[in-house]
Write a structure and sequence with these properties.
Number of strands: 6
Largest sheet: 6 strands, mixed
CATH superfamily of the largest domain: Ribosomal protein L4/L1
Shape: elongated
Strand order of the largest sheet: 2-1-3-6-4-5
Structural class: alpha/beta
Number of helices: 7
Oligomer: single chain
CATH topology of the largest domain: Ribosomal Protein L4, Chain: A
CATH class of the largest domain: Alpha Beta
Distance between the termini: 16 Å
Number of domains: 2
Radius of gyration: 27 Å
């Protein structure tokens, strides 16, 4: 499949041939969902924790007589029914990460990219570089291109001036090709790949 290549000034830079094995798949929502769920589980901190009865420092002396007091026969202030007592079945520090095979992760990425192609939201950029790396000028260039919500993927390294100029623009993310992932692809409207990123992806899934 062929796709038009644009420049950062909204000019034409010819066409590029894209591999059907990466860009021409019929997107499967179940695969994409599994990979996104794996990503979100992996990034969850899991540092939430409440103290149990064993971690509370309160008296364990009997509160009153066994009989005749007219109240329950409490033997500890650590109980969860008292203010300041331990939490029964509260959250514990743990990892939320789930396992997912590498083949499924790679397949999910290809299906996410193919989904952008199918919805005409994949764009190919000649190179992610600007002569004058200023945020104001970068914003004007993106407005001219119609990029209000986009993920821009460059080659192995991102041009420092381009990345810094785009950093403060809301709705724009810039990543090297190693950082491409399903969640970021789908949370942005447009996926913009440089020619270097296309070559790197085709080499990766060869």
């Amino acid at each position: 499949m062929k796709l038009d290549v644009t420049t950062i000034e909204a000019g034409s830079a010819g066409t590029v041939e894209l591999s059907d094995a990466i860009f021409g798949l019929d997107p499967r929502q179940d695969l994409i969902h599994r990979v996104i769920q794996w990503q979100l589980n992996k990034r969850q901190q899991g540092t939430h924790q409440a103290k149990s009865r064993g971690e509370i420092n309160r008296t364990t002396a009997k509160l009153g007589k066994q009989k005749g007091g007219g109240t329950a026969r409490h033997g500890s202030r650590k109980s969860g029914i008292f203010v300041g007592g331990g939490k029964a079945f509260g959250p514990r520090m743990r990892s939320h990460e789930t396992s997912l095979n590498k083949k499924i992760r790679a397949l999910g990425l290809r299906h996410a990219i193919s989904a952008k192609v199918k919805s005409s939201e994949l764009l190919v950029l000649d190179k992610a570089e600007v002569k004058n790396p200023k945020t104001k000028e970068m914003k004007a260039l993106f407005a001219k291109l119609g990029w209000t919500n986009a993920l821009i993927i460059d080659g192995a390294t991102v041009n420092e001036g381009f990345a810094n100029a785009a950093r403060n623009i809301i709705g724009i993310d810039v990543l090297p090709v190693q950082g491409i992932n399903v969640y970021d692809i789908l949370r942005r409207k447009n996926l913009v790949l440089t020619k270097a990123a296309v070559e790197a992806l085709e080499a990766r899934f060869k």
